[in-house]
Amino acid sequence: MIKIFKSATLFCLLSIFLFSCSNNNKINDFLKNKNLETTQQQLITLLNDESLSSQSRYAVIKRIANLYSTKNSNQMVLFLTDWVEKHPTDIYNAYWLLMVASNYLKNQAEPIAEYYFDRILKNYPDLLIQGESIHFICLQHLIQISKNPTNRISYFNQLVSRFPSLVSITEMYVRLALEYEKEGEWKQALKSYSLFLNQPDASTIQIPGIPDAYSNARKMVDFSNSSKDWTFESLASLEQAVKRAISRYDWRSLDKYRSKVNFFAMSWKSSETDANALENFSMKGFMVGQRIRYSAKLDETSNPNEAYLRSTGWSPYMPVWYLYFRKVNFPADPEIHGRWEWAGIYYGEKL
Predict the structure, then answer these.
(1) What would the pLDDT profile of 8-35 be if each residue is shown by its tens digit?
(2) Which residue among 11, 136, 176, 276 is least enclosed by CB atoms within 10 Å?
(3) Those residues with Cβ within 8 angstroms of residue 320's Cβ, 6 or more apart along the chain or in another chain
(4) What's the rounded Cα separation, in Å, for the pair 316 and 82?
(5) Residue 67: its pLDDT value, please?
(6) Please, which residues have CB within 8 angstroms of residue 318's CB and are 6 or more apart in sequence?
C-alpha cells in the first residue's frame, strides 16, 4: 500500500497518476492547472517513496521524463541516466536508456545514440513495451546508423537468430554477406550468399540499395565452386592464346579458354542478367566453313580491368563479335584474384 501523505495536493497526485490509468484526460487537465516546476517536484518527492510498486514507479518516472522533455531534453537525459546509474536493478532500465538513445537520434547525435542502443543490447535483458521488443527496436536503429562492419555483422546475426519472424531472412543473408566482404571474411560471405540462394524468394526479392542481388550472389557462389582452370595469368597471355586459336580455327581450345561460369553472349543493348544472355554453346558451329579475322590490337576503350577484341566473319547474320576479357575479381582466392578470363561476347558493332 502507498502511504497517505499529509499534503492534500500530493495525495491527489497519487490518486491521479497511480490509480487512474483509464482517466488520461483527467491527468492532462490536472497538469494543465498545475505549475510545471511544482508538479515536477511533487512527482520527484513521490518517486522517493519506498512503498511504490515497480509499475507505479515506472509511471512516475515516465511522467517526470516527459515533463523534462517539454522544457529541455538534456534535463530528461540527465534525469534518466542518473536514475539508471543509481538503480541498476530497475527492471525498466532498458526502456529508460531507449528513451535516452531515441532523444540523441532525434537530435542527430548518431554516434551517442549508437552507444546507448548498443549498451542496451549488451547489458540489459530484453523488455516488451506495448508489445514491442526493446532489443529489436535497438537492432533496427543500429543497422541504420552503425558504420562498423564488425558491429553490423553482429546486429544482422542477432536479427536472424532472435527475430526471424520480424525480418526478411532472405534480405538479412545478403546484407550479412556484404558486411563479411568488407571485413575480408570470404568464407563467411560465401556461406551467407549460399544461404541467401537457398531461400524460396531469392530470385524475386527486391532489396533497397542492392540491385541484382540474386545475380551477383549466384556468380560469386558458382565461381567459388568452379575449377577456375580457364583463367590466365595476364591479359597479354589470354589475348595471345585466343588469337592463336582463332588463327588455327581451333574451336576446342576456344571452348577451353571461355569462362565456365556466367559466360555471356549478347548484344550491346542487353544485360548480363537477361535470361537469354548466358550461353552454353560450342565455338565449333561458328568456325567451320567461315573466314574469321581479328584486329591486331585490343579496342581503344580497353582499360586495366576490361578489354575488347574486335573480330569478324563468325556468322552471315551477325559477323562482328567483340570478345570481352576481364580481370578476375575474387579476393576469396588470392591465387585467382587478379588473373584474366574470357568472360563473354558482344554481338555487333559497338554503340
Answers:
(1) 333 344 444 444 444 445 445 444 545 5
(2) 276
(3) 310, 311, 312, 314, 347, 348, 349
(4) 82
(5) 78
(6) 347, 348
Contacts of 318-326 with C-beta under 8 Å, sequence gap 24+, read 318/347, 318/348, 320/347, 320/348, 320/349, 321/345, 321/346, 321/347, 322/346, 322/350, 323/242, 323/294, 325/235, 325/238, 325/239
Do residues 176 and 153 make contact, with C-beta atoms less than 8 angstroms apart?
yes
**Residue-level pLDDT at 278:** 60
58 has pLDDT over 50: yes
Band (pLDDT 50/70/90 cuts) for residue 57 is: confident
C-alpha angle 230/231/234, rounded to 5°? 145
Contact 79, 68 (CB under 8 A): yes
